[in-house]
From TrEMBL:
Its cofactor is a divalent metal cation. It comes from Molorchus minor. Residues 155-315 form the DDE Tnp4 domain. Pfam families: DDE_Tnp_4. This is DDE Tnp4 domain-containing protein. It is found in: Nucleus. InterPro entries: HARBI1-like (IPR045249), HARBI1_dom (IPR027806). The keyword Nuclease applies. Keywords: Hydrolase, Metal-binding, Nuclease, Nucleus. Belongs to the HARBI1 family.
Amino acid sequence: MANRGFILLINAINNDEERNRNRIMRKQLRDQSDPLDMPEIQFRSIYRLSRNMVHNLIVSLGPHIPDGQRERIFIPKKLKLPFIFFPRKLPKRSGQDYFISMSQSSVSRCISTVNTAFEGLYYKIHFPSNEEERSVVKQGFMEMQNGFPGIVGAIDGTQIAISAPSINNELFPPLLFYNRKGFYSLNVQIICDSKLKIMAINARFPGSVHDAAIWTTCQIRELLRNNYIDGDYSSWLIGDSGYPLEPWLMTPVSNNDLTLPEQNYNTSHRSTRNVVERTIGVLKARFRCLLKHRVLHYSPTVAAKIIYSCAVLHNICLEQGEHYIHIADEMENDGNNNNIDALEDNNNQGQQIRNRIITTYFN
């Protein structure tokens, strides 16, 4: 009996030593591993970006990291971390990820820090502010199949899933974020050009807010309205019937009995406006943390910053010729089209301009 107890004690000691050796080995592997040392194919499959681009981003973001936060965590690891997060959803206990030798709280601090650093690159998201810039965007849309003149952007909203705010949160009541599709989200407004570049993005509104309501508060709307007042009658966005018809925002014709020119206009409008749906699809395909079933487990404010960071990265990818990786089962069409066609009747000037477009280009 004594011998058996002695053997059990020895086995327990050996098992404990084995666990310690494994723990030390895993720690060494995490501390010494550098994702940039991976083969390019493996790196792209995880990060959805090239090693060269990630390296350049680490260099460009480094100066935006506050000095006081550089002491706790080695900067290169800190900057590489979000490139794991943005392409895919981190598990709740993300600190246990093979490539991350950090606790969950450290991971959250890192994401917050890097999101703040990305604010220095928000200039990458830019809506054309002068005639020269507008002409370039218009030409891009004109060169599209079925395109027509005057388009300075395509607009749409998309729902980005977030975790439900606390029921005790007076600033962010959960009910506001519960959308018509049955999940908690931010309703994100995106305006893009013909090349899928994001020219404006607004992630400040909860999922229950209608696309048209977001549009009424949009600075781009105020800019286009002022341009119209100043005499620019040939610049407009294109949006679906979830938006009101305005002199600077063209929507489809929704009559039951369409004329042939109106049908031609709708066909052209639909195929051209599809560019914003493709932009949203590419954004979510690359940064899969934005997909509906990969919920952002952060407060609405932090989730919005993550969305902005992803939009900046999206534009940088386009600038540097980074082709996105298409994965069919990760793409989703969450069209946020709530019909409010009745609002079209409230804007005679918009109708006049749309009729002029139909008469001039689609007869």
